[in-house]
Amino acid sequence: PPAPMLDWSQLGELELSNVEIGAHTHNHRQLDILPTKEVADELRRSKHMLEDELGHQVPSFAYPHGFNCSRIRRAVAAVGHTSACAVMDALSSERDETFALARLTVRATTTTDQIAAWLDGRDARVAPYRERVRTKAWRMYRRARGSRSARGVINLSANTY
Fold first, then answer.
1. In the chain, which ranges are E strands?
2. How far apart, in whole angstroms, are the C-alpha atoms of residue 62 and residue 41?
3. How crowded is the C-beta side of 96, counted as CA atoms within 13 Å?
4. What number of other Cβ atoms are within 10 A of residue 120's Cβ?
5. Rounded to a whole number, what is the distance in angstroms from the first to the last CA of the chain?
């Protein structure tokens, strides 16, 4: 929620189309403002659930909303992931950090022509690039607010698992 999500059978279909399935946390929480113990639980649960369902290792990870820091990158590596994606809305390059790779965001308004251009390596910045001042300011603001920052938090009381 609020967008439709994939179900387990669709993950298998994606894999058959050569789409890599990576973990993304269990509850889509902002990892960089959580205590380390909760981060480890979020990471382990999502990785193990996917591996149990798919029947193989899930080596990659994507940070919810791209939020990460060195502590979180170490935790992602510690649970057994071998790479992780931030956001950056850019094409990745061989100079990217293995646990902070650039990724592009596909939205409902993203056209197939845009995706084709990205797959050809066109029409997007290439990472790494200098971080914008507003990005640094937003990170500081979010971390200062801590658990009061609601972006990316799903109210689990409305869901049953």
1. 60-62, 83-88, 101-103
2. 16
3. 20
4. 8
5. 14
For residue range 91-120, what is the model confidence (pLDDT) as tens digits?
999 999 999 999 998 888 999 999 999 999
Nearest to 1 by CA among 159, 160, 161: 159
Residue 159 pLDDT grade (very low, low, confident, very high; cuts 50, 70, 90): very low
Please tell me the distance from the alpha carbon of residue 104 to that of residue 91, in angstroms, as a whole number. 7
- CB-neighbour burial class of residue 67 (10 A; exposed 0-12, middle 13-18, buried 19+): buried
> Which one-letter amino acid corresponds to residue 122?
R
Q: CB under 8 Å to 37, separation ≥6 — which residues?
A: none
